[in-house]
Amino acid sequence: xxxxxxxxxxxxxxxxxxxxxxxxxxxxxxxxxxxxxxxxxxxxxxxxxxxxxxxxxxxxxxxxxxxxxxxxxxxxxxxxxxxxxxxxxxxxxxxxxxxxxxxxxxxxxxxxxxxxxxxxxxxxxxxxxxxxxxxxxxxxxxxxxxxxxxxxxxxxxxxxxxxxxxxxxxxxxxxxxxxxxxxxxxxxxxxxxxxxxxxxxxxxxxxxxxxxxxxxxxxxxxxxx
Amino acid sequence: xxxxxxxxxxxxxxxxxxxxxxxxxxxxxxxxxxxxxxxxxxxxxxxxxxxxxxxxxxxxxxxxxxxxxxxxxxxxxxxxxxxxxxxxxxxxxxxxxxxxxxxxxxxxxxxxxxxxxxxxxxxxxxxxxxxxxxxxxxxxxxxxxxxxxxxxxxxxxxxxxxxxxxxxxxxxxxxxxxxxxxxxxxxxxxxxxxxxxxxxxxxxxxxxxxxxxxxxxxxxxxxxxxxxxxxxxxxxxxxxxxxxxxxxxxxxxxxxxxxxxxxxxxxxxxxxxxxxxxxxxxxxxxxxxxxxxxxxxxxxxxxxxxxxxxxxxxxxxxxxxxxxxxxxxxxxxxxxxxxxxxxxxxxxxxxxxxxxxxxxxxxxxxxxxxxxxxxxxxxxxxxxxxxxxxxxxxxxxxxxxxxxxxxx
Lengths: 225, 408
Fold this sequence. Notes:
By secondary structure, chain A is of the alpha+beta class. Chain A has helices spanning 36-45, 48-56, 72-79, 84-91, 101-119, 149-158, 161-174, 181-188, 192-199, 209-222; strands at 12-13, 16-33, 130-146. Chain B has helices spanning 9-12, 14-25, 43-57, 71-84, 93-109, 127-130, 151-161, 202-211, 233-244, 264-275, 291-300, 315-322, 335-338, 351-363, 365-382, 385-401, and strands spanning 31-36, 61-66, 116-120, 137-141, 166-169, 182-185, 220-224, 250-255, 281-285, 303-306, 327-330, 346-348, 405-407.
C-alpha cells in the first residue's frame, strides 16, 4: 500500500499530490457502557475505526458554540457521569504527536483505569448509556492535484474539509502511515519546516477543520522555502 | 416532482453531490427494490417518493412496491407497532398467523428480487421467510424505536430479521445487542424542494389560514402528526390549556389517516371530544397530498410542538426546523438527534414542561428566532434527502465489501 516514504502511490503520482476525500457511514456496534468499568472494557476491545470515530468525529461536525469537550468519551464522562476531571484528561490526548491508534487506546485505558482506582465506577440510569459506534470509510478521488507548493496551498485553501480529514487523520492512523500525507509530501519536496508544523497540529486545539485548514495554510506561507 | 440531483447543489454544496455521483458510479446498473406498507401517509412513503427517482437518476434501477393487506392485517401490524414501541398490547397466536398469512400472500403476488432489497419496518419483514428464493442482499430498514419492545413481538420478528444481511436504524439508541447482523445508522430526511418544504409566498400561507378559519393575528401553536396516541395529541391540548390561562393563543392539531393505521379515527374522536367548544382549537383532518397546506400551516405557526410519547424520528420536527420555526418536542427517540436543547429547539419531558417552554418562546421572540435559524442550518447539514441518499449508497458499498475501509 505504501509508496515512497510511506505515501500511497495513489496519493503521489510523479510527485504530484493527488487529493482524495472520504465519506462515512456510521455502523452500530451494539456495545454499550453504563459505568466506567464497562466503558474501559469496551474501549479495550472495540476496533480501530470505532475508537477513531469517537475521538475524531466531532471535528467533522458543525458547532453552534465551541464544544466544551473535543471527543465523545470526554463528553459522556462529563455530561452523564459528571466526572469532570476525567473528562479533562480525556480531552488532553495530544493527537498531534500520536502515530498509532494502539498508542491512543493504551493512553485512554490508563487514564480511565487510574481514575477508577481512586474514584470507583458509578452506574448511570437506563437510557443514557454510552453507545459505541464505528465507521465505514469510503475513500473517493477528487479532481484536485498539486505539483508544487503554490498549487498545493491553493487547493488546501478551498478543498472540502472531508478531504483534509482524510489526509490528516484517516491515512495516518487507519491506513497506518504514522505521519499525515501532507507532511510526508512536503518533507519529500524539501519543505521540512512546514511538514513539521503540520505534523504538530493537535486538532483538539481548534474549533473545527476550517480552523485547522487556516493553521495549515499559514504554516505553509510562513515556512515557504 | 423531484428535481434533478444537481439542483440540490445550491442547498447542500457541490461536494455533497460530487460524493453521491462518485459513490454511485460503481453501482450503476444494479437494482434496488424498496418494499413498505403504504403509498401515502407517514414518513416512509414520503421519503421513498423522493428517494426512488434520485436513485434511478444516479443509475441504480430502483423500484418501489407496497404490500397489500386487509383491515385485520393492519390491526395486527398496528398492535405490533405499539408493542415494539414498548406499549403493552395483547398479542395472541391468531395475530401472528394473520401476519404470516398476509406476508405469504404478498410474497406470492409480488415479484421480489433485486441486488438490494430494502424492507421497511415490521409489516413486510417476514417476506424474507415466505419468498420462494432469496435473491440479492436484504436490508431491514427499521424506522421505529425497538430499543425496549414487548418481548413476545420482538422475539417473533427477530426470527425473520436475523436472516437479513443488515439492518438500518435511525439512531444509535435503537441498536439491538441480540442481532448478530450488521446494523447501520441512517437518520431519515426531508426534501427541501418538496411541496411540503419548498419556499411559498405569504399569499399562499394566508389563503390556507382563511380556508381553515385560523386567525393570523393570534399566536399559533401547532402539532402536525397522524392521529395516534403515541403522538400524544391529548397532551398537546392539555399543554395548550395551561398556556391559554396566561396568554391568548390558538392551537392547530393537524393530522391524517394512513391506510396502515386503523386507530386513527378513534383517536380523532377522542381529541374532538376534548376540544369541547373552544373555537381556538382547530382540529384539521387533511387528506393525502395536502402538502402545500401543511407547509403553509407550519410557516404560519408561532411555535411548533411534537409531543410524542415514542418517536422513531419525527420528520415533522425536521420540517419545522427547516422553516426556521422554534420547536418544543419531547426528548424521545430520533427527536433528540434533531433538537439540541437550547440550541436548535427545546426538549421537554412532560405536559407542564411543554407548556412552560411554549409560553417562554411566545414571550421571547428573539430567542425563538435564534433557535429557528440554527435549526434550519442543523437540518441543512444533517437531515436533507441528499445525505440520506449518500448513506444508502455507503451502506450498499459496506455490505458489498464487508470491510470498514473501502477504496473506490
